[in-house]
Amino acid sequence: MALHSNERPGRPIAKFESMLKTDDVYFFDAEDFEDIIHHYLNNGKIALAKKAIKIGLQQHPDSIQLKLLDVEVLVFENNLDMAEKLLDKLQLLDSSNEEIYIQRANIYSKKDNHDAAINLLYKALDLSDNGYDIHSLLGMEYLFMDDFKMAKKSFIKCVDLDSHDYSSLYNVIYCFEFLEDFDGAIHYLNDYLDSNPYCEVAWHQLGKQYFEKRMYTEALTAFDFAIISDDTFMGAYFEKGRVLEKMGAYLAAIENYETTIEIEDPTSHAYLRIGKCYEKLKNHDMAKFYYYQTVHEDPLLDKGWLAITDFYYERKSYEKAFYYINKALNIDGENSLYWKKCAKINKALEKYDQADYAYKQSVDLGNYELSTWLKWAEVAKLNSDINSAIQILAQGREFYPESAKLQYKMAGFQLMAKDDINARITLIDALKNDIEKLFMFEEEFPQFATIDWTTSIVSDIRKRSK
Questions:
Q1: pLDDT score of 8
Q2: DSSP string covering 164-194, please?
Q3: For residue 2, what pLDDT is reported?
């Protein structure tokens, strides 16, 4: 039995789902089908959207909009050839339909041909009365191409068309930040707030820009306005806490972090910041308590484990520090920072073999910081393996060829290994690079600083530099 949709009460979606559960067939307007399909697509229910498209086209076989929704699903499922064939047919029927160009642009975007996608989107824009969605798509295409200036322009147009489009507002600020144009972001947000003075999102973003420029008083004011606009805005309280922390107002910072916990469920980041504040206040018991709360809330937060490790390391409780860094490594053995911290603790415990292994792990996992090479070489020396120390520094020089600190240390180790020829070459490189840092060599290797040939080289290079 076929019934018209108006004969059943309720919304089209409820009626459609009721129809699927029975043998009845309801008739819907094409517009109703469009609403139903959009609802399912927006909620990620692709199978139901496809079913609605199929039934919709059975009832309205000439509906171009339903066929375009069919294309949208085909593109989503990467059936690009089929989607293009259907678009070819639709373009013959309605060559001025902007949606056809939008879907063709989506296809080109899927194929990573973003230039072609942008060209088609501009054609769609010429045919559009509003263009809001098209500007948003253009912005995303420009982001794919890392063209942040053009992306910014597109998202600004979105915000101009809908001042409550916070997703585009965030994208505008993201582009400013990527371009490191914090002044531009501040100017834009202030202009925006002139028209939208109670927008907590804009105040929040403005505060973050001031924070980046270390304009803490202005940042604090911006976050206060964000809170006035929405006193449940957790992000504003958290950022205000960060500002107060930077300003040394640790008790006030704690108060704001605690407010975030009261508004929503506790977060490990809030607990961690509270712990840091208490440590600055030298209230070590409360600091330790909140550090433990941090890892209890989120056992995978590396900063929490590092905070506990550092807490004990700074108090020379190296065994406890060792215990907690190993607990962290059991959770994430691929974290190079954990391994570097582990190496540092093992060195303090005079477990030089284990420290050497930990530094190697850290480097193998991508930690190429200058301090890593220097400290690893120092551990190899303490382990009475000068040749390994020299090899480690040679690796480090590949990453830091202009580091005088590394060169002076390497020259000293080469002298310890009685490799005078290479030591002479390395020392000359270091002196030419930065003769003012010679004191590093003299302090670390006083036994070699006064031998005849080193003093001769130093004297010669000083004369040349004049």
A1: 42
A2: T-HHHHHHHHHHHHHTT-HHHHHHHHHHHHH
A3: 36
Q: Strand pairing partners for 25?
A: 2
Among 54-68, 149-163, 298-312, 412-426, the least confident range = 54-68
Torsion of CA 434, 440, 442, 447, to 10 degrees: -120
Quote the domain boundaries for residue 394.
Answer: 368-466
CATH of the domain at 382: 1.25.40.10
Residue 218 domain-assigned (yes or no):
no
Beta partners for 26? 3
When the pLDDT of each residue in the chain is averaged and rounded to a whole number, the result is 89
* 391: in domain: yes
Q: Which two tokens stand for residue 411?
A: 């020259």
What's residue 168's pLDDT? 95
Structure-token pair, residue 259: 């407010």
pLDDT tens digits for 279-319?
Answer: 999 999 999 999 999 999 998 888 899 999 999 999 999 99
For residue 463, what pLDDT band results from cuts at 50, 70 and 90? low
Whether 422 contacts 414, CB under 8 Å: yes
Q: Domain tally for the chain?
A: 1
Distance CA 4, CA 59 (A): 11
Domain assignment of residue 34, yes or no:
no
Least confident range of 58-62, 133-137, 156-160: 58-62
Q: Kindly indicate the confidence band of residue 431, based on its pLDDT and cuts at 50, 70 and 90.
A: confident
Token output for 97: 């339909």
**Is residue 1 predicted with pLDDT exceeding 50?**
no
Which among 397, 387, 328, 316 is positioned nearest to 358, based on CA atoms? 328
CA dihedral 320→323→326→332, nearest 10 degrees, is: -80
Residue 193 covered by a domain? no
The answer to whether the beta carbons of residues 98 and 89 sit under 8 Å apart is no
Note whether 383 and 357 are within 8 A (CB): no
Mean pLDDT over 43-56 rounds to 81
Give the pLDDT mean for 368-395.
Answer: 95
3-state class (DSSP) for residue 456 = helix
Calpha distance 191→101 (Å, rounded): 34
Q: Which residues contact 315 (CB under 8 A, 6 or more apart)?
A: none
DSSP category for residue 265: S
Residue type, 298: D
If phi > 0 it is left, if psi is from -120 to 50 it is alpha, else beta; for residue 400 that is beta
**Amino acid residing at 191:** D
Cβ-contact 42, 34 below 8 angstroms: no
CA dihedral 108, 109, 110, 113 (to 10 degrees): 60
What is the model's pLDDT at position 70?
77
